[in-house]
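W.,

You were right to be curious about this one. When I first looked at the sequence I had no strong expectations either way, so I just let the prediction run and decided to look at it fresh. Below is the sequence, 190 residues in total, followed by the output.
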Amino acid sequence: MMDKLDLNNLTGKCLISAPYADEDDFTGTLIYICLHNHDGAMGFIINKKIKEFSFQDIAFELPIQFKDPYMSVGLYQGGPLERTKGFILHSDEYHLSDSLNTGSGIIISSSLGVLQDIASGAGPKQKMIALGYAGWAPNQLENEIMHNRWLVTTATPELVFNSNDSQKMSEALSSLGIDLYNLAPIAGHS
């Protein structure tokens, strides 16, 4: 039996964009919510990998020394806000004092020290880098959910870090018992 959704605290949840919503920056996205409170919400798109450049391209612009110059770290389009700002989503066995622990086994960091640790091989075991973020004003996200813009599911490190990007959406829907291909283009309230 599914618990009633608490719209007052979506921290550590994933948002699944409604398949039949109007086209926008969030069409076809899965978003990890790292912070949700009375001031609004913040999250990162976790299924839209950047293909135009890599972690190495960014790191070579910063004062970072690589242990392995060909290290692969997923670089994602985190959202439409501040697209030049980077955030590291990573597993919780690695934690710095200025990191945000979301309570779901996922930590958010933005310090250069984390990037240096990743490049030197001493960083978190699971990681991805998001450029930009998604943000909502107070009550905006709750209203969007009530108007069927988003489905909400529990986030897991497995879904965020280990699932193939092309499968993340269907895996998130499956966790709700929903098959993407059986969704109707019209939603309603009961």
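Here's what jumped out at me. The mean pLDDT is 86. And, maybe more interesting for your project: The longest helix spans residues 165-175.

Coffee later to discuss?

I.
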